[in-house]
Amino acid sequence: MSPLALVTGAAHRLGKSFALTLAHQGFDIILHYHSAEDEARQTQTEIESLSRNVTLAQADLTDPAQIHSLISNLQSLDVLVNSAAFLPHGNVESLSIENWDISLDLNLRAPFLLAQACAKKMNEGGLIVNITDVGAQKAWSRFPSYTVSKAALESLTKILARALAPQIRVNAIAPGFVLQSDIVPPKEWARLIGRVPLKRAARSDEITSALEFLLKNEYITGQTIVVDGGYSLI
After folding, report:
1. Position 1 pLDDT exceeds 90
2. Which partner from 26, 40, 189, 199 sits 20 to 30 angstroms from 166, CA to CA?
3. Per-residue pLDDT averaged across 3-14, rounded?
4. Between 27 and 142, where is the model more confident?
5. Distances from the Cα of 132 to the Cαs of 110, 122, 124, in angstroms?
6. Which residues pair with 184 in a beta bridge?
7. What is the pLDDT of residues 114-172, one digit of tens each?
8. Pair 82, 115: CB distance under 8 Å
9. Phi, psi for residue 225 in degrees, rounded to 5
10. What is the pTM of this model?
């Protein structure tokens, strides 16, 4: 029986890359998505071409009841990757209460509730990986709720790692600039990349290789692996 991994936000972008990486490593996949059904089905097809089983799982992770429904029928789980995230634009003056709440509910509370529920389904050797952001250690004034949620998620990673050891390991991956967001104009993206010491964005495989490393090295827990081309140095 193949090991099983749940990846949230796995329809597209980095979540998709994490799901494909796990499939290449021999995992069957529970592919969570919120509204991107077409992209989820395309990702499902790509994973199935690797001779892996895929279960599509639609859920709004800002709703605890839907998180419960997502997990309730699981008999066992080996890996959880918390990749789903919300990045609202808005500075301290303009950010709405609604977008603040969505950010914290999806980026922080959902990983906690998922870890809490999935830990009960994991045997010894289980792995939880939270996807944070190099911005967690920055003061991104244009993205306050996102930055705060990711910083808190890194703190939560340590708390979960201590609480769930030794049966389950919990780590985080903090990517730098990888895929341009729709809310970042091309000129601004070019400016940001120009500040990165390595002078380029990351390739998706350079981020997902950190997940492969965490799968193989079973003596790492409570850590955040930063893959940012040196951006955290500036």
Report:
1. no
2. 26
3. 97
4. 27
5. 13, 22, 24
6. none
7. 999 999 999 999 999 999 999 888 887 788 999 999 999 999 999 999 999 999 999 99
8. yes
9. -95, 115
10. 0.96
Tallying the residues shown for the chain, one arrives at: 234
57-82 pLDDT per residue, tens:
999 999 999 999 999 989 999 999 99
C-alpha of 10 from chain center: 9
Nearest-Å Rg of the Cα atoms of the chain is 17
> Among candidates 61, 60, 64, 49, which has minimal Cα distance to 19?
49
pLDDT > 80? residue 181: no
- Tokens 């997902």 map to which residue? 208
Strand partners, 7: 31, 81
Q: How far apart are CA 65 and CA 85, in angstroms?
A: 18
From the list 33, 24, 30, the residue with the least C-alpha distance to 78 is 30
pLDDT above 90: residue 183 = no
The answer to whether 67 touches 109, Cβ cutoff 8 Å, is: no
CA distance 91 to 107: 18
Task: Give CA torsion, residues 169, 150, 23, 125, to 10 deg.
Answer: 10
